[in-house]
């Protein structure tokens, strides 16, 4: 079997409620040992790349810098490629620090508004500032637009709800940088052709349709959001469905 590029979702696929899914680390090791390229791509929008790598390693899952892709990295690349970009960041400190090179409030009005996880810093004045900047012409960049996320203490409102509020108030749509954006998929795939690309995740509203649109092989795991979403109605049909990430290596014939 020709080596594949395998993109693994993080929360709900490799990790669930803050703990590694049983067999996750072994699955990653087995895939790499078989010659496949394994990368992690996630809509996590509250941590820097280095912090996220440390968190994943701390759970026993092998990953290195450059093997993980987040919407924060996508935002950084967009701003770096836009001469004169000035960003207003509606997100917590880690994201503001990642985008610090483009935060120049004294240089003029914002050209971009980046919205990410802002649970620790969200206020009405901050929301107003973002809304006013977008209405005045700044491009609204949503690091992701998930409705909710699942943590050890229960479900929490996600970034998508904040993005939707600004879109509604300003009357302008956001550009979504995370899943299910095809731009984000291409960033993580790094030029891998669709016939060699596998996307593995728990979310039938982002991971699976993103893979289907790209023509990649899609693998749905029955962990994370799977049961909740199955109860809500019809979802796209993946190429494969497995109980958990631990079963993934069995889908790949020996080299």
Automatic annotation (TrEMBL):
Gene3D superfamilies: HAD superfamily/HAD-like. One of its GO terms (cellular component) is cytoplasm. InterPro entries: HAD-like_sf, HAD-SF_hydro_IIA, HAD_sf. It holds the Pfam family Hydrolase_6. One of its GO terms (molecular function) is phosphatase activity. It comes from the Bacteria. This is Haloacid dehalogenase. It comes from Actinoplanes awajinensis subsp. mycoplanecinus.
